[in-house]
Every structure is written in structure tokens, then in C-alpha cells.
Amino acid sequence: MFIHIGDSNVIQSEDIVAIIDYNLVSSSTIMDEMMATAHQKKQIIGPKKNAKSVMITKNTIYYSSLSVTTLKKRSSMIRAINKLDDYSDEIVP
Predict the structure, then answer these.
(1) CA distance 91 to 1
(2) What pTM value is reported for the model?
(3) 11: Cβ–Cβ under 8 A, 6 or more apart, which residues?
(4) Which residue of 4, 35, 50, 53 sits 20 to 30 Å from the alpha carbon of 70, by its own alpha carbon?
């Protein structure tokens, strides 16, 4: 499934490694170094200006204008939808 993470970015849910609050990223030296390295490798997508969270995937880091809570709710909804049984074949027009 796919998750819309804001700023016209949509990613596959199985690619998500971590969702981190932007304030934690900006206050950590280790995270700061990781972000600098990713920036040099051009692996960061999205505007930093309005970022509320950072989405780390297998190959890319995304700045998101959505909060960690909102992104967690979206990913939880997708997990719930995936667990639903599909009865569409049983519907007869």
C-alpha cells in the first residue's frame, strides 16, 4: 500500500524504516551528520522549511509537513485495511 506523506509525496508503506519528529532530528548531532551525508548524496526529498517530521525509507529521506502522529494514523489505517477480508468476488450484480 501507499501512504501520502504530504507535499505531493507518496511512498510505499513497506519501505518505511522510521518516522521521526523533526525537532529530535535537528537537536541530535548523530542525526545531523546522517542528514548531512544524505543531503550530499541527494537522498533527501521535500522542503525543510515547514517540516514537522522526517520519514526515513530504505533509500530516501523525506521531510514531511505532517506530524508524526498524523503519519502514524495513516500507516495504522493502511494496516487495518490490509487485514480486512476481500469479499468483492462474492458480489453478484
Answers:
(1) 24
(2) 0.76
(3) 2, 3, 5, 55, 57, 62
(4) 35
